[in-house]
Amino acid sequence: MQPNPTTNYVDLAYNAAYNSTSQMYILDVTGQVVLTQDFTNETGRVVKNVDVSRLQSGIYFVTLVTNKQRLTKRLVIVE
Question: For residues 28 and 20, what is the distance between their CA atoms, to the nearest angstrom?
């Protein structure tokens, strides 16, 4: 996930073992979901650009859920 910290967007990069779908959730520090997005993936390396420009400065947690795993990373948004 980059850039981190960011102001307007973040790129999520991951590998998809096969054609599938995944879901991305961004949660604030209180655990409230502030942004969700569904992705359709083709087999191989996947890079998705996510617009976070409407989120306020702060610390967030980005969770990516695929058919086989769940991964959470910390994201910092600055103005």
Answer: 27
